[in-house]
Design brief:
Blueprint (H helix, E strand, L loop, with lengths): L4 H37 L2 H21 L4 H19 L2
């Protein structure tokens, strides 16, 4: 446990940020999973809509600093390839 006042405050701030980031990362995982499931079911329209929503969530996380820009780009690319392969296009 920190004894310095500024470090105690910094620990509180870090915990709040960690919880905010955790919800954003969880949302990204959920949207990604839904996009893959829609593609596996064969519904191209639903898969494309879910893919677009997942990409938007990843972009938002990148903009807010939850994800690094390159990490966001890599996740979007990987998800797009996966959905396209499952749809067969």
């Amino acid at each position: 446990m920190a004894n310095i006042k500024s470090q105690i405050k910094r620990n509180r701030q870090n915990e709040k940020a960690r919880k905010r980031n955790q919800t954003v990362r969880s949302e990204i995982k959920t949207r990604t999973k839904r996009a893959v499931e829609a593609a596996q079911s064969g519904d191209a329209d639903a898969a494309q809509a879910a893919l677009k929503l997942a990409q938007a969530k990843i972009d938002t996380a990148s903009t807010r600093g939850v994800l690094h820009a390159n990490t966001a780009a890599r996740q979007k690319s990987k998800l797009t390839k996966q959905v396209n392969n499952l749809l067969g296009s």
